[in-house]
Amino acid sequence: MEYADKTLILIRHGELPDSCRGRYIGRSDVSLSEQGLRDCRNLAARFSELRPEKIFVSPMRRARESACAICPDRDDLIFDGRLREIDFGDWENLSFEEIRLRTPQEELDRWFRHPDRMRFPNGDSVAEHYAGVDAFLDEVLFSIPEKTIAVITHGGVLMRLISRARQLPPERQFEVLPERASMTILQWRKDGGFLNGE
Question: Coil, helix or strand for 17?
Answer without folding.
Answer: coil
